Amino acid sequence: MSALPEGTVTFLFTDIEGSTRLLHELGPARYADALAEHRRIVREAARTHGGVEVDTQGDAFFIAFPTPGGAAAAAQAARDGLAEGTIRVRMGLHTGTPTLTGEGYVGEDVHRGARIAALAHGDQILVSPATAALLDAEPIRELGRHRLKDFEGAVHLYQLGEHEFPPLRTPGSVELPTPATRFLGREQELFDAVSLVYERDPRVLTIVGPGGTGKTRFAIEVARLLGDDAEGGTVFVPLAPLRDAAATLPDVFTGYDGGSSCPKS
User: Is residue 84 part of a domain?
Assistant: First the structure.
């Protein structure tokens, strides 16, 4: 890997829109082929315009550029390259002065760039005020003030390019336990559960089985996969401590507080 740029750096964050739904529609084999082509296009665009890949997790990229112009050009090249395929990528650009350590970048700028990208629609490139101020030659559209998850107050956001998109997506928070170990096995059951939700849109999905077989862990993984499409938010409400059935609904709604996906054992 090339040396990461230092000083003032522009970050490009990318993420596939609706990846779980797309996996369901294409099937594992076709999705794997589409994902590989997506990675090739994004990496080629970044390399051509001076970007250095910092990290790749699943279907997301984190790329650093020494100039905002290079980052903007790479984002547009990646979007254009993906136009003929089935995958749509949301992107975010942010310029800052992060701290560079032996493990990579740390600091608020990293989180801010990721949060900006999370608000975008597929094919949309969102830009922070810091980056927008440095892109005088690029077509920039102001989108108003928006809140970023985990940040105080609202900030002005901008769009790179003249494409028309719906209002910025406002994904709800995902408040799920973080298990100590990775989820292994039962991939087919996970696929079946997600497919059931997408195909039938049930108001309630119930997971049943003998005690100790991993129902709660399975429910958490299902909720995590569906969190990207949840309107309002995703929360975990533990019901095991309850001894009075009459307290179930009040407890759910107290912990739920307006979310839209509520896994429970």
Answer: yes
